[in-house]
Amino acid sequence: MKWITHQAAAVGAALALHLPPAGVLAACVGAVLPDVLDQRLAGLAPTRRGRQKVFNRIHRGATHWFGWWLALFLAALFWHLPPLGRATLTGLAFGGLSHVALDMLTPQGVPLQPFSRKGRFSLKLCATGSLGEYCFLAVIALAVWFFMGRDLLRLVQGLGHGALF
Hints:
This protein is mostly helical. Helices cover 66% and strands 2% of the residues.
C-alpha cells in the first residue's frame, strides 16, 4: 500500500476510537513507521544500489510482523503513563497495527514470524498502487468524512488551540 492509504486508514481508525489529537497524530506517524524503519535499515548499506538491494530484501520482513505492534499496543494499555504518553504510544502502536493489516491485503502479504521470509499471510485483494488500492482509499476518505467529520473538525480546532490530549 502507498503511504497515503496507510495514513488515511490509521487516522480514520484513530478518530473512530476517539483518540485525543496526540494519539491521532501518532497514529499517522505509526502508519508509515514499518516502511520508514525498513528504509533506515537499508540506508546502512554503503552505496545507493546496495541500499536498494537491502531494502528489497528486508522490506515487509521483521518490521511488518504483527506481534511487535500488538506488544506496543498492549504496553500502551497497561503501562502507567501520563495521558499524553499513553495517547502517543497508543496512536503509534495502532498506526503500526493498521499498516500491517493493510499490507495483508496485498499479494506480498506480511510475515507470520518476525525473522523469517518463508511463512507469509496475504488476502491478495489489491496490489500496491493499483486501481483497487485507490478505490479502497476513496472509500476510507468518504467514510472518515461521513462518519467522523465532526471529530476531524474538533481535532483541527483543538490543534489550533494547542490541545494535544
